[in-house]
Design goal:
The chain has 351 residues and is mostly beta strands. It is 10% helix and 38% strand. The longest helix is centred in the last third of the chain and has 32 residues. The chain is elongated, with a radius of gyration of 44 Å.
Length: 351
């Protein structure tokens, strides 16, 4: 400093922006903001020994361990010279560095050297609204962490509103789909979840005007009967509503009894079906659940009357009573005629 002028400024406390690179010391590693604030502070996680220089019969070698997260060298060690009588014995444990893995002899000689085969990203530390998270890729052969990355803090998530079609219902067999409108910006729209599972974009169409999503009927047919949660996903927020899938008859599951086919009738459970009876208690048919249609199906019983109307139906006394009445009337008439004839004969005799 030549003139003695000094300048000062304030490092803001809020609004930290943490770098994606790892800072470290002999104990821990972390992500750091330009103000010096630290996030994701954690102790080093040393990996296996890594040979820097293999020992020979006459010369020592060297090896080290490094943190599998940040790469910090946590330990170094000398590999003693092997001497003249040494023969290689390779261990079964995998050794590794940032590029390859291998099996190693105690002298540091290597075999089965091959490049890492990283798997998918695995979240190690989830991000929060204010703190970055950490994800990593791991070699599927040796377990070496081949890559790490920061998951940015989520910030304050926006909750959007469903403006049309909230808590809709849809009957199986309907030829049109279901349309739901959300007030989120379609430019930020990333997808739809049903029951917490992200579905393919081929299952619906989307249009602007906020976000207008129409689920295709062929997709809705595949959903189970009952209530489902629909979630609109955006870069900066979400919106949620419900969607109920009904059977073609308006029910949602086979546990709901069917409505009688004829008003005034009743339905009574009978095992896995229902028997419909008329107001007199006479069974007229049965309801069974059709898994393919997702609805109750009615099967009418055939008429109880036989093809010969002169033969009364078992349990129906109407015709029998009629015949008895007719027979009784006939006997009364015949009796009356007999009495009249006797009286006339009596009169003739007494003249």
């Amino acid at each position: 400093m030549v003139c003695g002028y000094t300048d000062s400024g304030t490092i803001p406390v809020e609004g930290h922006t943490f770098g994606t690179g790892w800072e470290s010391d002999g104990t821990n590693h972390w992500n750091e903001c330009s103000c010096g604030e630290k996030a994701n502070v954690a102790a080093h996680a040393p990996g296996s020994w890594i040979t820097d220089l293999a020992a020979t019969e006459t010369t020592d070698g060297s090896k080290h361990k490094e943190c599998t997260i940040c790469g910090y060298i946590t330990e170094t060690e000398v590999i003693p010279a092997t001497g003249e009588s040494h023969s290689h014995t390779y261990g079964t444990e995998w050794k590794s560095d940032g590029t390859n893995h291998w099996n190693e002899c105690s002298c540091g000689d290597k075999t089965n050297i091959a490049a890492h085969t990283p798997g998918d990203w695995v979240v190690k530390t989830p991000a929060t609204e204010t703190t970055n998270g950490v994800k990593e890729k791991i070699c599927s052969v040796c377990g070496y962490i081949t890559d790490t990355d920061v998951i940015p803090a989520t910030g304050s998530s926006v909750v959007y509103d469903i403006t049309k079609g909230a808590n809709s219902s849809w009957k199986k067999g309907t030829l049109t789909g279901v349309t739901i409108t959300c007030d989120g910006d379609i430019a930020k729209f990333t997808g739809i979840k049903i029951g917490g599972v992200l579905i393919g974009a081929d299952k619906y169409t989307k249009d602007s005007g906020s976000t207008v999503v129409t689920f295709k009927p062929e997709y809705l047919e595949t959903l189970a009967l009952g209530a489902h949660t629909v979630e609109f996903i955006y870069d900066d927020g979400i919106a949620q509503t419900g969607l109920t899938i009904l059977a073609a008859d308006g029910t949602t599951d086979p546990e709901t009894p069917p409505e009688p086919k004829t008003p005034g009738n009743t339905v009574e459970p009978d095992g896995d079906k229902y028997i419909e009876k008329d107001p007199d208690g006479k069974p007229i048919g049965e309801w069974t659940w059709d898994e393919d249609k997702g609805e109750w199906v009615f099967d009418q019983y055939p008429p109880a009357q036989d093809s010969d109307p002169s033969i009364p139906v078992t349990g129906d006394d109407t015709d029998m009573i009629l015949w008895l009445l007719l027979g009784g009337a006939s006997l009364t008439v015949l009796g009356g005629l007999t009495v009249t004839r006797k009286r006339r004969k009596y009169r003739v005799v007494n003249k």
